[in-house]
User: Fold this.
Amino acid sequence: MKWYSVFPRLGIAWDGGKMGVFKTTAGTYGYMFGSQRGINYNPNAGAYATFNWHDLNGDSLYQPGEANLALNGAGSDFVSVSGGISNYVDPNLKEPSTFEYSASWEHALATNLGFRTTYVFRKISNLYDTTGPNVLRPMSVYDIPVTRRDPGADGVLNTSDDGGKVTFFDYEPAYRGAAFIKTVTSNSPNPDFFNTMEFTVIKRPSHKWQGEASFWAVKNDRWLTHTFNSPQDSRFATDKTWTWAGNFNVSYHLPYDVLMAVSLQSKQGAKGQRTVLFSTADPDGGTPISQLSTVNLRMGEFGSVLGPPLNVMNLRFSKDVRIGGNRRVGLDFDIFNLLNTNAPNALVFASGPTYGYATGVNGGIIPARIGRIGARFSF
Assistant:
């Protein structure tokens, strides 16, 4: 496969005098596939097959004979396979592209004080997932309805947070086995859209201080997945939320030429949607999930679960001293996370005993307040 593309860009700025400065841009941007992606389609690379396991003696240890490891045929416990053995690329795969245009207006509010507002529109087309849809198992064969009760956030039935009943679909037994798996990376017909507004006030250096404050918000209209194999894949599959963030920076020259600087970053908390992993057997004794084995189902719109905002303030004191010629010694004192916030930057959205727990980098919690003393020498 070869991609030949041209991505033109254009920008114009006009000084309107007392009306301010107007700017507009338009451009397209491409996507490089990357040689590292080739490992996903190499049949000699690692592959993983999953089978149902029947713990016949109940000792929680696997013994030969407790799973039929045949990839195809009657009685097989085969569930799925992943890796280069089943992944292919559509020879007509198109290069994903981004179209973006922006418009901004800048105007002086007073001496050394300016205002800027910007609007940005972005459209991303021809997106794809590394593992594409399974072309040997069409959507139409997912015609076995399975109804389960939503166990709620705690993942346990018959508790106060239980939800209602939900229905998803298993596929016909005739399409079970590795012979019916061929995932083809192909372009999605669903583009993603983003609309962004930003507002900024800038104070240039004067009267011993300078600063900047900005706020931006994004209206998302994107797909959470670009591969659809079963009817449940399209359940709550879009993100139509707003995302926001703000920044504030100010510095002031104190007596004895000490520079004090404060910065505050505030942004929306961790955002997601609750999911439930339904196991093969139904605790209520209903229809088991025979072919798919398990089903992970989205239980609400993306953004229906939202963590607390993230507010991080940093403080710095700095002083430089000349020691002759161009030589200079500088001393710095920093306090990071001055407010000592412990808001989570990521959450567990899967129903169960850890639902709502912090997860991710640094355990999902913003690092604690930290002080630092530093020295610099320049010459």
Notes: The two ends are 54 Å apart (CA to CA).
